[in-house]
Amino acid sequence: AQSVTQPDIHITVSEGASLELRCNYSYGATPYLFWYVQSPGQGLQLLLKYFSGDTLVQGIKGFEAEFKRSQSSFNLRKPSVHWSDAAEYFCAVASSGNTPLVFGKGTRLSVIA
Amino acid sequence: KAGVTQTPRYLIKTRGQQVTLSCSPISGHRSVSWYQQTPGQGLQFLFEYFSETQRNKGNFPGRFSGRQFSNSRSEMNVSTLELGDSALYLCASSRIGGSYDEQYFGPGTRLTVT
Questions:
Q1: How far is B79 from chain A, CA to nearest CA, in Å?
Q2: Tens of pLDDT along B50-80?
Q3: Measured in Å, how far apart are chain B's first and last C-alpha atoms?
């Protein structure tokens, strides 16, 4: 069965600094990969997704992620973090078109001035 | 257009009781999925309904059940509540479901079992 690991439970960055959130997955074939963001009291919002093709994926709010098959990783990046980016970020994987998403445990991002 | 709505937003129940949560998907969406979110286990898939049929089911006991109506609204029911059922229950809708289709999440129902 597929699984997702987000090694960092909590990350703190300064406003304006760059950000990288790590995600590693376990699955034999090429999975479908997603990043979601959850603000306090809100549901999840999709930031970006990867199915195939270009391994660098652009998403909303200035986020991007890179799929690296050799490392089984799909890390999320942002060049300059804004205070409004403080939230919890979830990486998710699905093995095929009709299988449910499997989520990582999440990484909480704090942004300091 | 209106987003996914979930009612109630907060709920307090006692052990042994049962509870029903409701989810109204985005207009035109036919797939509804339910997730349980807890600090310890994270986000776990409960089930997915499409056109009133359960299409996928997660690894939860039979106390957790759901249904979908002809207007795509969905309900989930938890019987004989346990303390461990305290969680945020999230509903997500999509047009046809499946991994290709973007899921839109509601704000969740916070269930507390005492």
A1: 24
A2: 999 999 999 999 999 999 999 999 999 999 9
A3: 37
